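Workshop exercise sheet. Pairs work together: one partner reads the sequence aloud, the other fills in the structure field after running the prediction. Swap roles for the next sheet.
Pair: D.N. / O.F.
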Amino acid sequence: MNVFLTLVQKDWIEAWRDKKWIWLPVVISLLAISQPISQYYMPQILDMAGNLPEGTVIEIPVPTGGEVLAGTLGQLGIIGTAIFVLSVMGSIAHERNSGALSLVMVRPVQAFQYIISKWVSNAIILLFSFVVGYSLSYYYTNLLFERVEIKAFLGSLFIYSLWILFVLTITLLTGTLLKNVGGIAGVSVVVLAVLSLGSSLFPKYMEWSPANAQSQASEYLLTGGIWGDSLTLMIIASLMLLIGLFLFTVYSFKRYERY
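Structure field:
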């Protein structure tokens, strides 16, 4: 346990030096709050854009609070996923390429301890950033539109967090297979994009996919917190995939001939 805590502390110190504790929550927050604010001021934005006949009245249906928060998750769907991948892609590769990994592994550190410390330290940073950004979006949604039940908010937060953890796990796994940081990011994004595309094209056969986390979280918001059977299937499958991918990541890391 002492080894694990020491490794996690080391990663958090490095994240602080790299300003990840600052820039990641800020970027995710700006991305998240842009949805309720832009939707609220959309009529004024269109009016200021000009090129409209004089006397034109712009009337846009006022979205519900659930629709606004669902839009926030949509904002985080593509751009947010890419940001999460970019923030994690060098976790193992940088230490491996710089030789720091060799200094760590010559000590009494097991592969499982090293990988789980990377997973936990990055998971806390990513989820912290998401919670901060999503909570700000929730605040502005309640302020500018209508109040969303706290149950629906927390449920959607939990559901979408599974996708973030899946993104993290895929990126760490790729980091044990490749040395090049750009290759890690590229392969991770492609794998996640293919999974998302498959879930969109074959929804009937891909109900289990973690890529459905966004749509399931949005549906949970729009229905006011109704828990469907497909949501249960997705959560169970996602947890099993996370465990399986994590164990494969440890196995892949153990296969290094040298660190």
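Discussion prompt: The longest helix spans residues 111-144. What would you look at next?
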